[in-house]
Protein: Corrinoid adenosyltransferase
Organism: Iodobacter arcticus
Amino acid sequence: MTINTERNARHAARMARKKAVIDAHIAEANIDTGIMILLTGNGKGKSSSAFGMVARAIGHGLKVGVVQFIKNRTDTGEEALLGKHCEWHVMGDGFTWETQNFEADKLKSEAAWAVAARMLNDASYDVVILDELTYCLSYKYLDKDIILKDLESRPEMQHVVVTGRAAVKELHEIADTVTVLNDEKHAYKAGIKAQKGLEW
Amino acid sequence: MTINTERNARHAARMARKKAVIDAHIAEANIDTGIMILLTGNGKGKSSSAFGMVARAIGHGLKVGVVQFIKNRTDTGEEALLGKHCEWHVMGDGFTWETQNFEADKLKSEAAWAVAARMLNDASYDVVILDELTYCLSYKYLDKDIILKDLESRPEMQHVVVTGRAAVKELHEIADTVTVLNDEKHAYKAGIKAQKGLEW
């Protein structure tokens, strides 16, 4: 054998062993059920990840509902494209330092939760996205017990994706998949403004 | 003043101070330029975040190109929806433990990079997505110096998004925004299989 052939043979043998291990793990993961995904942390990418899942779900012909709890702008790229293919509710009125009115924020959040709760009680929705919900709990706009109960009692096969910084510990506990997005570096801190098509 | 009115007034004053600080930061971030975003780490959400940005960019009428370096399946939800609105290239042949053939993987990666390099040399592309590129560098399928040079010499206003686990340190260095997605919990480890519409 040439050196190259020998190296390739060793590589193939090593990878065959790795494949056996990975295939066994995949075979073990055979439960089919609705899951809850929590995307939290202070890094860029939480909402865009949720919207990528919206695109995936729509691409498979699934029924998707989106509620945006804090955002109040309707000129976003995500809504322009994805909002054509699913139910999309922009129900926020901005962050609390924008509104400076706790009572009004609370009423807005409660109205948004009413829409979310309707979806979480309707098995025809395959995927429900609750974008920036975490803030409504950390700012105490919404009653945590009601939120957790509605999330946990949703239809068995329904997926739900929750985004936002600083999720309360109970959201970590009830989620099946939790990703914490850590901000290692952000263009914004180098003086670059939020870019159309990436950040909105 | 009632207790409630007083509490609301204190809240409003505190939030007005916070808004002044945040607005000053936003005013400082006034540079408009193409940025590079790196999404790495072992948590769920890297590719879906990139695809959410594809949706955003398409929604704003921007021109987007996508190259998938490892994935070889073309039945994904993301391609079904987003592939209708942009240039989408699935150019991988699976992870190295699937193929068990280093030389073939290297040739596939080089062919994929040729497509990526063409886009990175064409200012008509507003956003270029290099999905799972990181593996081609950590597995040494591609020459790191060429990749870094092509990324850095791209058109000034072009955005590029790179995804994948274990990005080499040079990718961290040249990126403007780096998010590290940490896997706190994953449904897969609890025996739940990859769910259509969320993970593919």
User: Anything to note?
Assistant: The mean pLDDT of chain B is 94. The helical segments of chain B are 3-28, 46-59, 77-82, 96-99, 102-120, 133-138, 144-152, 169-174. The two ends of chain B are 56 Å apart (CA to CA).
